[in-house]
Write a structure and sequence with these properties.
The complex is a heterotrimer of chains A (345), B (89) and C (399).
Chain A: E1 2-9, H1 45-48, H2 53-67, E2 74-78, H3 84-96, H4 104-110, H5 114-122, E3 128-132, H6 138-152, E4 159-166, H7 170-178, E5 205-212, E6 220-228, H8 236-246, E7 256-259, H9 269-275, E8 283-285, H10 287-290, H11 296-308, E9 326-333, E10 337-344
Parallel strand pairs in A: 2-3, 2-4, 7-8, 7-9
Antiparallel strand pairs in A: 1-5, 1-6, 4-5, 6-10, 9-10
Chain B: H1 5-19, H2 45-59, H3 66-72, H4 76-86
Chain C: E1 4-12, H1 19-27, E2 33-34, E3 49-50, H2 56-63, H3 73-88, H4 93-97, E4 101-106, H5 115-122, H6 139-148, E5 154-157, H7 163-176, E6 182-189, H8 193-201, E7 225-233, E8 245-254, H9 267-280, E9 289-291, H10 298-311, E10 318-319, H11 322-325, H12 332-345, E11 378-384, E12 389-396
Parallel strand pairs in C: 4-5, 4-6, 9-10, 9-11
Antiparallel strand pairs in C: 1-7, 1-8, 2-3, 6-7, 8-12, 11-12
Helix pairs in contact in C: 2-3, 3-6, 7-12, 9-10
The chains are: A alpha/beta (345), B mainly alpha (89), C alpha/beta (399).
């Protein structure tokens, strides 16, 4: 699965590509909001007026990507929650109007497949179209789906638009806050990993890739992925070593680790456990840049592609990786769902 | 309650813009005899349901049958006529 | 490509708590759409629903699950159908825990089925409910993963009303490409104020029990169900008696026309059916029964009929079993896949209920009465959803 092109709207300045060239934003906030570009030139006004944030960010990434690439054969998205703000707005209507006459737009926009459907609609794409909502493995599931699609079309050249989106609304922030997923006190994202308190900070964004099975002029490739929703901490070493063994690789073959540490004192030790076999390895802690959200591994993959192409090296800690060619991403959410993604030049 | 027809037209257009999120429009941009559906405004079937909600919440008018709706929701004039004749608030 | 077979089935719906009960109702034309007994809503009295005749408490008790641990109704009915499917396929605890076993589920309302709890938590009113960590669309699947210690690939799909049909297709693809050795695929959706009010706001609910393909149909009836199928490669199944049917093909595409309606020329539904036939290596005339999407909305049934008229020279017997159970949203694709397989196994066609006057625009009409002693080798099952998602599945008799 070769990555031909990519684009992201995130809390960092990815929308104008200054993030990967060294412009790194420091946050002293509980919520890391995405920096949204002006959509007027990107999205038709008649469509934009109805879009909630998730759909808007998603379309805001899709349309530029589709504009500079051929029509994809498939559109595959991953999102844990889709348009949650619209969802809760509709819910509030249900309660506040006592199930009376309600406006349907919130309902239609709230369904997680609204984004993939809108992309198909705007670009008149009748091809394969799926939305995965597998919680914090939603992007990994979309990635798996894309890999199956290419496996099935071994001979012909095929392309896929693969993406992820997650939005913060006050409502889902409230829900996750009640669920004790976020910190009570404020530290800067620079010091995120030294906060020594439970929880993290909330991020959002949309990251998308234009994929092909033709390696020509590709930026990088998704080489392998693995997921599990049922691991104990003492199985994590075997989880990563067996994954590498399946690729005929050793820990030494990995040039750089991208770890999902988010400053949560209760679950960050899982990352240390996973990193053990790798010794001292150049590492990027990507949640310092964008915070915690369900499909953040898509952003990590975006970052990996930039690193493999000589960009964003200012984010590498624990030694320099001169010209990384193999990057391993490990992420977990609540120490329940785990994923490994291998991206290579 | 607005009883003056001209005022009612402006008020209705303001509701229309709010309910349908026609953010770049002002009441003056919408002509009274401009067809709402299938014209330049680009409204569709979901908007027609939004309009039914508008009439219910703002004017206490209940339109149950979408077929009935189609005859009323033609342009601003037809809707305002209907509001004048049927409003309950 | 490896041949994929169905070796286990489990279903719970308004017409039965097990596969056997479902089939009994299908055979005897017993509809499950009636006044709700458990679902509490402003519309409980004015509308009818395909409600599962068990309360949450009864389900917890039957499944031996503890109260207060965040098991939503979506999860409870999912566990019930999942358990029947894995028992039917004789999967051992080791099989379920194996990394070679995948679980692909689907839901639309997911964990957000208790609208009032969600309202309180989202608006910070009072202390958190027991469901505060269980609102995600994938929560029911994660709960099942925990209950059975499943370590392999998981996924949850939401393509609205075609969700579980896509889950089945994804499961087959995982088997075909050798990624796993067995898959449990399906979906679960329970009645919720959220969906009832959502469909009501779009004005597509029928006040009376739905009557798909009737000329005076007024809309759909909502139902609730969970349904799961166990899929394996035929070559791996040692006991051929376990095989219910062959999953011979699927077609997936997007109508790319409107967020909540099908195109007039039904290009999406047609393409999905064509792709399924192509993948199954079959011609339209090989299909002996179509389990239609048939929601009962004016738009769907007209466009779906139009698609039949274009694709088939002679339209085979078809019906909408949504006339029995209502539209069960994400679960519909898997539930109707099971009904299609029951139709093959028992050599019978289940009718579309309550039709007084078939849609007059076409020279064909749906099956109106239960039809026994019919040889059915290949069934086409359609599922179309909001967002333009169109999926057709083909199941075939085991030869």
């Amino acid at each position: 699965m070769y990555i031909k092109d990519l684009y992201a709207i995130s809390p960092q300045k990815t929308h104008d590509l200054s993030f990967e060239n060294g412009d790194w934003l420091v946050f002293n906030e509980f919520i890391y909001k995405a920096i949204e570009p002006s959509y007027q030139d990107i999205i038709p006004a008649s469509q934009l007026r109805r879009m909630g944030k998730a759909v808007r960010m998603g379309i805001g990434v899709s349309l530029p990507l589709m504009g500079r690439n051929p029509k994809p054969d498939g559109i595959i998205f991953g999102t844990a929650n889709g348009g949650l703000e619209d969802c809760i707005k509709f819910l509030n209507q249900i309660v506040e109007y006592n199930e009376g006459t309600l406006t349907p737009t919130n309902f239609v926009q709230s369904t997680p497949n609204a984004l993939a459907g809108q992309v198909a609609l705007i670009s008149e794409n009748m091809g394969y179209n799926i939305t995965h909502v597998n919680g914090s493995l939603a992007f990994e599931s979309a990635l798996l789906d894309a890999s199956l699609f290419f496996d099935e079309h071994g001979q012909e050249e095929k392309t896929i638009l693969l993406g992820a989106v997650e939005e913060i609304s006050d409502y889902n922030y409230n829900i996750d806050h009640l669920g004790k997923r976020f910190k009570q006190e404020l530290v800067s994202n620079e010091d995120l990993l030294y906060s020594n308190t439970p929880g993290s900070y909330c991020g959002e964004g949309s990251t998308q890739f234009f994929l092909s099975n033709n390696p020509e002029k590709s930026l990088a490739k998704f080489s392998a992925l693995k997921q599990s929703s049922c691991l104990s901490k003492n199985e994590i070493g075997d989880f990563v070593l067996s994954f590498l063994a399946e690729q005929n690789m050793n820990p030494e073959d990995v040039d750089c680790l991208l770890l999902g540490k988010n400053g949560d004192s209760l679950t960050d030790s899982w990352y240390d456990e996973l990193a053990k076999p790798f010794g001292d390895k150049p590492t990027v802690y990507f949640k310092k840049s964008v915070g915690e959200y369900r499909t953040v591994s898509a952003f990590a993959s975006y970052l990996a592609v930039q690193l493999l192409n000589g960009k964003a090296h200012h984010l590498i800690e624990n030694g320099a990786a001169a010209e990384p060619r193999t990057i391993l991403i490990y992420n977990h959410f609540d120490a329940v769902r785990h994923s490994l993604i291998l991206i290579q030049k | 309650m607005t009883t003056n027809r001209e005022e009612l037209i402006v008020e209705f257009k303001e509701h229309l813009i709010k309910y349908l999120n026609l953010l770049d429009l002002t009441p003056a941009d919408i002509k009274n005899d401009e067809v709402l559906f299938g014209g330049d405004l680009g409204l569709d079937s979901i908007d027609s349901v939004e309009l039914i909600v508008l009439l219910d919440r703002e004017y206490g008018i209940k339109i149950k049958n979408p077929t009935e709706g189609r005859q009323i929701l033609v342009d601003v004039n037809t809707i305002v006529d209907y509001i004048v004749a049927n409003r309950t608030k | 490509m490896a041949e994929i077979v169905v070796t286990g089935m489990g279903a719970i719906s308004s017409i039965g708590l097990t596969i056997a009960e479902n089939r009994h109702s299908l055979e005897h034309e017993i509809s499950g759409i009636r006044k709700a007994r458990h679902f509490k809503s402003h519309y409980s009295d004015s509308l009818v629903f395909g409600e599962i005749d068990q309360s949450d408490e009864e389900l917890l008790l039957e499944l031996g699950l503890e109260k207060g641990l965040g098991y939503t109704r979506t999860t409870l009915i999912a566990v019930k159908a999942f358990r029947e499917a894995i028992q039917d396929a004789q999967l051992s605890p080791e099989d379920l825990a194996s990394t070679r076993t995948a679980f692909i589920s689907s839901s639309t309302v997911g964990g957000m089925c208790y609208t009032d709890d969600l309202y309180h938590d989202a608006n910070l009113q009072g202390s958190p409910s027991e469901f505060v960590k269980h609102y995600e669309g994938s929560d029911h699947a994660l709960q099942i993963v925990r209950l059975y210690g499943m370590k392999g690939i998981t996924d949850v799909i939401n393509t609205a009303c075609s969700s579980s049909a896509n889950a089945i297709a994804l499961g087959a693809r995982l088997l075909e490409t050798g990624k796993v050795d067995r898959v449990i695929a399906g979906g679960s959706d329970c009645l919720a104020k959220f969906t009832v009010n959502g469909f009501n706001s779009l004005r597509i609910l029928s006040e009376q029990a739905c009557k798909p393909f009737d000329n005076t149909r007024e809309g759909l009836s909502l139902g609730e169900a969970a349904a799961y199928l166990v899929l394996e490669r035929k070559a791996d199944v040692t006991d051929s008696k376990k095989i219910h049917a062959i999953f011979s093909g699927f077609g997936i595409c997007n109508d790319a026309f409107h967020p909540s309606a099908t195109s007039d020329d039904a290009r999406g539904p047609r393409l999905a059916m064509e792709l399924a036939l192509k993948r199954a290596n079959l011609n339209p005339e090989d299909i002996q029964y179509i389990n239609a999407h048939g929601t009962g909305t004016p738009n769907n049934d007209l466009t779906e009929s139009f698609a039949f008229s274009k694709l088939f020279k002679d339209v085979p017997p078809f019906s909408s079993t949504k006339s029995y159970v209502g539209h069960t949203l994400a679960a519909a694709g898997a539930l109707e896949a099971i009904y299609s397989i029951l139709s093959i196994q028992n050599r019978e066609v289940y009718p579309s209920l309550r039709i007084e006057e078939p849609i007059p625009d076409f020279p064909f009409k749906p099956t109106l009465k239960y039809a026994p002693d019919v040889t059915i080798n290949h069934v086409l099952s359609n599922s179309f959803g909001f967002g333009g998602n169109c999926t057709s599945l083909i199941f075939s008799a085991c030869t």
